[in-house]
Fold each of these.
Amino acid sequence: MGKIILTGDRPTGRLHVGHYVGSLKRRVELQNSGEFDDIYIMIADAQALTDNADNPEKIRQNIIEVALDYLSCGLDPEKSTLFIQSQIPELTELTFYYMNLVTVSRLQRNPTVKSEIQMRNFEASIPVGFFTYPISQASDITAFKATTVPVGEDQLPMLEQTKEIVRKFNSVYGKTLVEPEILLPDNEACLRLPGIDGKAKMSKSLGNCIYLAEDEKEVQKKVMSMYTDPNHIRVQDPGQVEGNTVFTYLDAFCKDEHFAEYLPEYANLDELKEHYTRGGLGDVKVKRFLNAVLQEELAPIRARRKEYEKDIAYVYDILKAGSEKAQKTAAKTLEEVKAAMKINYFEDEALIQQHIKKYQ
Ligand code: TRP
């Protein structure tokens, strides 16, 4: 059996460098590794609507933004199928059947759902669609028989839920679905890149993101304003590296070669950290270095985005062709699911014959 990737993002805003190190960069590497038979990258608009029901315009506007971000990072429509979730009706049909295999209390225990309910102040009025989105996510993954789901750590509970549904389905109806594996970023700093204010997570509502589409000046401004060690006041003071956003970003982005190019007084990040901890190294110097590293990484992404921006109709064509291909794959799985569940009456000649006999 082949190796298949399925992953995606909610189109609620432009993608930022947290998405990039947490998932996008890896996707492109996996795409180019040639190890996968199929790669499906989904813009999860239906899922985004589960907590944005009153704001469909936001979702609609951001589909093209996310598509541009994907393409600019190097996702190649020749190698990866980019598609829009809502255009695949089979996904909702699968969700309806999987709902019978999941209990309300199991959904209530899902840590991601729990924290999102809190974040959105949904406590007393949780939309049913939102509450059940882990089941819909299981449909997304299983419809494509995905073996591998590269996502951030926050998606772990979704993968657990999916695996449970797969096991339950296969044990009740016979082996039909494929159990997926999560693929997390291998670098600790990439798991959860903090916002530029040092807050736990980059998030649009906190205004602490660096977006992939931002220009050089904006990125530089944000880097220079980053949260560091608040007790590192004078250059000669010893500084703290843990919890220091600038160093967390360097952990995520910098390689030894960057030192040779931009900061040759140091061989590697360990030496820089050592100097900072000892005292005598100012924040501005470290920030300038981070800026150089980030700009190097983001420049080709920006340039590719500019190219695709010139041909938006082509980007829509990519999404349309991708959605058509994805729909075919999902339809095939749905057919197998319905056969396993014995709801394929018209294809079941034995059933029809049985009933003919019964009433002869
Ligand atoms: N929940 C994911 C997010 O919030 C988006 C998503 C929807 C997804 N369906 C998926 C990710 C299936 C991986 C696999 O970003």
Amino acid sequence: MRTITSWDLFCRVVDNYGDIGVCWRLARQLVQEHGHTVRLWVDDLRSFEKICPAVDAQADAQRVSGVDIRQWTDDAQVANLLAADAHPGLHDVVIGAFACAVPEPVLTLMAERASEGAAPVWLNLEYLSAENWVAEHHAMQSPHLRLPLVKHFFFPGFARNTGGVLRESHLGAQRKTFEASPAAHQALWHRLGVDDLVHHNPDALRVSLFAYANPALAALVSQWEASPQPVICLVPEGLAAQQIAELMGDAGAAKTGARWTRGNLSVAVVPFAPQEHYDPLLWACDINFVRGEDSFVRAQWALKPFVWHIYPQSDDVHLVKLDAFLARYTPALTDADAKALISFWHAWNGAPASLDWNEFVAAAPRLRVRAVTWEQSLMQLGDLAANLVAFCEKQVK
Ligand code: TRH
């Protein structure tokens, strides 16, 4: 009987940080919690370096946090790096993350192993979606057209019979320790360079803002300025920070340390943190704006009200996905709170609806309660890394 202890994970960065963000989190979890060997192939080490400064963007081969990282440029380089490796050949599982095609030399090696009766388990790890069809397609197989190989589709999701979402086993304990520690909060504010802002405004609502460029941001900034409760907006360097700088008439100033105050709103641009430092920001804020896939999931584990800027797709396909999530999340809320959440999320994502910050804030106490029941239901699905391991072990039994 074969066992599963090693993984080749291929990641193509389409844009931004979500593709590598998910792969990096998964790779570390397989190493740290399962004791497995992981070789992570990445075609864009610059994006990787942004979420993990320990990565050397020039290196073909390196090891960070116990994960073997390989630069993936072309097929020839993959073949060379495989041959040069201390463990030449493939690992037990080969994953094309976000449905990226694995390189030809890898397919050839997989076919050779198949002829020996020991083909690696081959998976497409798909994008996260709350849509109903995901459970029907999860774990489906597809035979290769030429080679004696079978690929499985592994879908993350929010429903039974999906792969679930990533969650480190120590995450809840880490969050609780942070929440109980004034020193940990202090260290966070210091790291972000906002100690003074936070301490001078103890009654302000703290908001973290991670978003794509967003036409609704101008209206939100106006509402924050006029908000009865002061708002501190902490915005990591990036698209939303640039947009706020433009709105403040200070285009070009969207660098760490920039500050603006208007009415009851204070904005601070904070550093784009290494990935493991992003969670504490979500834990320490009262309301979190998140985007894409990985930060969206982290906000759910932070147990705070959150607003999702979904990755925009052509023909507004993303709005279907947005509503699929809302359809799972909001039935547990009262009609009024569900309406506040749905219309805010719709307006934030460009669907016809009114953006009403005060209405959203009024619902926040119940949204915090909902965040807890949602966490409980998500945890019943198991975490994605453990589900992947169990799935792969089943394939080789
Ligand atoms: O960056 P994203 O928008 O990523 C993506 C990509 O656009 C991708 O192509 C698309 O397919 C996918 O979304 C759905 O958003 P996401 O997924 O939240 O990834 C951001 C990562 O950056 C996440 O791992 C958290 C991390 N991060 C930090 O490490 N430090 C920070 O300061 C912030 C704000 C985020």
